[in-house]
Specification:
InterPro entries: Ade_phspho_trans (IPR005764), Adenine_PRTase (IPR050120), PRTase-like (IPR029057), PRTase_dom (IPR000836). By secondary structure, the protein is of the alpha/beta class. It has one domain (2-208): 3-Layer(aba) Sandwich (Rossmann fold), CATH 3.40.50. It has helices spanning 6-9, 12-26, 40-52, 107-118, 156-164, 175-188, 198-208; strands at 2-4, 33-37, 55-59, 69-75, 80-86, 95-103, 122-131, 146-148, 171-173. It has a 5-stranded parallel sheet with strand order 3-2-6-7-8, sandwiched between helices. A two-stranded antiparallel sheet has the order 1-9. Strands 4-5 form a two-stranded antiparallel sheet. Helix 2 packs across helix 3 and helix 2 packs antiparallel against helix 5 (156-164). The chain is globular, with a radius of gyration of 17 Å. The two termini are 18 Å apart. Residues 152-156 and 190-198 have low confidence and may be disordered. The protein binds 1-O-pyrophosphono-5-O-phosphono-alpha-D-ribofuranose and adenine. 1-O-pyrophosphono-5-O-phosphono-alpha-D-ribofuranose binds next to strand 6 and helix 4.
Amino acid sequence: MFQDITTLLLDPKAFKDTIDLFVERYKGKNISVVAGIEARGFIFGTPIALAIGAKFVPLRKPRKLPGDVIFEEYTLEYGRDRLEMHVGAVKPGEHALVVDDLIATGGTLCAAMNLLERVGAEVVECACVIELPDLQGRERLHGKPLDQYLNVLGASVKNRINNHHDSAQIVPLDRRRHRQRKMKFLKKGLNPQRQSSRSEAQAALQKASR
Ligand SMILES: O=P(O)(O)OC[C@H]1O[C@H](OP(=O)(O)OP(=O)(O)O)[C@H](O)[C@@H]1O
Ligand SMILES: Nc1ncnc2[nH]cnc12
């Protein structure tokens, strides 16, 4: 199922509640960097960074950042991708929080942590709104705690949001929508500039369209 966070964003009170819950946890914890993962990690990461007085460092998909970058490649549920970070954005010894909307296989968060650790930063925690526990993404976090504030399986915080904000339910979209998105991703893999090889992407496309 594709887990969609845009319903949460439609309700300003619920969105603010969610951000506040992260801020309560991280304020005063000596975190100087919030690293947000493109694209949905930017939505949650920037307000958290502003509220705790940390700088915001975007971790972006290939060829988006204008300066010199270091990068990490990783595998997703369907295909491969790559995250990039500007050289010099994070200094050795800094304390970092990684923020994304969702952890599935953990490949994306693992790549983000590797980038930060390669430049000598310490990753304090990874913060997400949703966890898909069946995919066991936690196991790829190098032992770093995952802090999740709106667990789709019904953690207390999700209940707080869902009980108080009728329009803010996080809803799984139907399988057709998820499949369409997956096909779109795999088609992008047919572009030789992307990380997936042409033959890998074609094989995956055939499998997905069965
Ligand atoms: O735990 P993982 O298996 O690595 O998957 C989680 C990642 O997948 C989604 O992003 P996606 O790669 O679809 O990119 P997008 O947000 O730019 O659409 C999501 O926003 C996470 O970043
Ligand atoms: N099931 C899912 N829903 C939303 N985003 C995702 N990214 C990876 N898997 C996902």
